[in-house]
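Long-time lurker. I teach an intro course on protein structure, and each term I like to show students one example going from raw sequence to a predicted 3D structure in token notation. This year I'd like something fresh instead of my usual example. Would anyone be willing to generate the tokens for the chain below so I can use it in lecture? Attribution to the forum is fine with me.
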Amino acid sequence: MLTLGGPLHEWHEGLIDGVVSVGPLECMPNKIAEAQFFHAAEHEGLASLTLPVNGDPIDPAVLDSFAFEVHERARRKRAGLAPEPARPKRRLRVVQTPGRPEMPASCSIPAE
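-- Reply from a regular --
Happy to contribute to a lecture. Here you go:
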């Protein structure tokens, strides 16, 4: 509850411009928070980045890109400019790995 409620409250109060949620890879509460942050971005405009971690290093380009996006959105907001148009939604396609059971085509994952 606090994973989503805290950032949304602070977003409404104007205290933050974006949120990074970090949790263990394949953690169901982290996945639920990611889904809810996706809806918050659509309905409220809150920029969010969810990072599932498994001990491997995080790609700095992902963080840099998100930081740039948040900084640019905050700059446009302060300048009274209209927000940038939303990027079209992309879907990742499932790639079959040899020797693995086939997954249904409906298992595509939404991506930002």
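Some talking points for your students: The CA atoms of residues 1 and 76 lie 30 Å apart. The chain has one domain: 15-111.
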